[in-house]
Amino acid sequence: MALSRVPEATRRRLSSPNGKFPAAVSPAENLGVSSYARRDLYEERQTVDAGIGAFATVAIPAGTRIFCEDSLVMMPEEATHLDLYRAVSALSDDKQAVFWNLAASAKPGKNVAWINALRACCDDETSDSFNAVVEDYERAWSIFETNRFTCKASVSTVAPPTLGVFPAAARLNHSCAPNVFHRYNPLIRRLTVHALRDIEPGEELTTSYIDICHPTARRRALLRHWGFRCKCAACTNPDEEADRRRKKLEDLFIRVTNRERKRMRNEARWTAKDYEHSLGIVARTVRLLETEGLVETDTMGIICVIGAQLGMKAGGKWREQAEEWAKTAVEVDRKCLGEDSMEYMRAVEVLEATRVKPKL
Ligand SMILES: C[S@@+](CC[C@H](N)C(=O)[O-])C[C@H]1O[C@@H](n2cnc3c(N)ncnc32)[C@H](O)[C@@H]1O
């Protein structure tokens, strides 16, 4: 661990899995899915003001899977500095070097209770070496917070997500108008990154660290976590009208998903009027996503699958619309997530169901 100034003995003691600290999430098993970053399509290089970035070296067609990466470290959301340090120390030397070389721009957290636990493990150390340990822990945490992606077990699960660092994809900078889309695929236990549109040679590959459906102020607040102010066109020249539409979009999305949860709990009592109401909100959400140029987003996939399912249940004039929405969901999910994603498989199932003629 080239960067560390922590004495070897202290490091060994603090990182030994003696049951003192909760364990990290177990490393992904070999599922027969290779882990790769398409270095034949892009290169890493220094940007003007955003550290290292990934740039296309050739034309990349929309839908291309550019990364399919195994995690370097994966931790539960509630993991502490101590848990993280232990997980990093358990990596091979090569992997530790990769971890310590990643960017560290996230600010230290305010919760420093972990320092007391650490002190208890370091009581035979001089204060200099204790400070070095604290610094190391802080740096590991900052690297983790700067580079982690959220890894949900499934879209619908209530289980808390885990957070993972994927070393090649970690070089992707943010844009609120991204040209790639990232998502952890729990079926293959890889982070996948797909081109959202055709990308020209020389263009920087950018993903969105946050939900791009948020209005500017909310996006800015969320991005503070990574310690930078986004300079994309939407953030530098915020348009009040567009922000109002994004706020509306956020509200509509919440209304659709809340109503869906309610319907699932109460399907037997859901009336034709209830279906009509939900379908009206779905139709408005889809229109707004189109107006905002957010057609190629997983939000569109989620809304269209919900709309298709509701449309089939409602029947009548909604059946044709249900098939159209299901087709859109299949296309969007194929492009953003790939054919091995749960979302794509679900969308295909729904599309097939919309094509079954109702019994008269
Ligand atoms: C996941 S890393 C991305 C790779 C990083 N640039 C590097 O050098 O390794 C996230 C960090 O990159 C920088 N970054 C990402 N997107 C940026 C942007 N749009 N503008 C400025 N800095 C950005 C911030 O420092 C952020 O904390």
From TrEMBL:
- What are the residue boundaries of the SET domain, all occurrences included? 29-210
| InterPro entries linked to this entry | SET_dom (IPR001214), SET_dom_sf (IPR046341), SET_domain_protein (IPR053185)
Database matches in Gene3D superfamilies:
SET domain
Give the span(s) annotated as Disordered: 1-21
The record ties this protein, via SMART domains, to:
SET
A Pfam family per the record: SET
CDD domains recorded for this chain?
A: SET_SMYD
Name the UniProt record assigns to this protein: SET domain-containing protein
